[in-house]
Amino acid sequence: MTTIEFLRQFRIGGFAIFDFAVSFIAVYFLAPFLSKLFRKMRIEIPKRNWLFLTIPLSILIHVIVGTITPLTRDFLDLQGHPILKVVVVLLTVFGVRGVRILKKK
Predict the structure, then answer these.
(1) Exposed (0-12), middle (13-18) or buried (19+): which is 77, by Cβ within 10 Å?
(2) pTM
(3) Cβ atoms within 10 Å, residue 56
C-alpha cells in the first residue's frame, strides 16, 4: 500500500478526506492568482469565494473531463443524495454571492 492509498482510506460518507483536504489547500494557495487572472477579465472574485466554489467547480470539471468520481456520481444521481445536492447548491450560492463585474475605466 502506497502512502496515497493509505491516506485515501480514511473516509466520511464514502468520500476520501484526503481528496477534500488537498483540494481546499490547493485552492487556498491558488486563490490569489485566480483572483488576479479574473480581475484582468474584469471579473472580481474575492479569494474566500474560491474556497466556496472548490467543490462545485470540481464536480463541473470532472463532468467535463469525463472522470466520474464518487462525489460526481452521487451529485448526478437523480434518485438520491439530497443533502449532497443542497450542500453543493449552497456552496455555489455562497461562492457566487461576492462576484462582481468590473466596469471599464
Answers:
(1) exposed
(2) 0.88
(3) 20
Tens digit of pLDDT for each residue in 42-86?
Answer: 999 999 999 999 999 999 999 999 999 999 999 999 999 999 999
Contacts for 48 with CB less than 8 Å, ≥ 6 apart? 31, 98
| Cα distance between residue 94 and residue 105, in whole Å | 28
- For every residue of the chain, DSSP letters joined together read --HHHHHHT-EETTEEHHHHHHHHHHHHHHHHHHHHHHHHTTEE--HHHHHHTHHHHHHHHHHHHT---HHHHHHH-SSS-HHHHHHHHHHHHHHHHT-EEPPP-
Give backbone dihedrals phi and psi of 16, rounded to 5 degrees, phi first: -70, 125
Query: Cβ distance 39 to 102 under 8 Å?
Result: yes
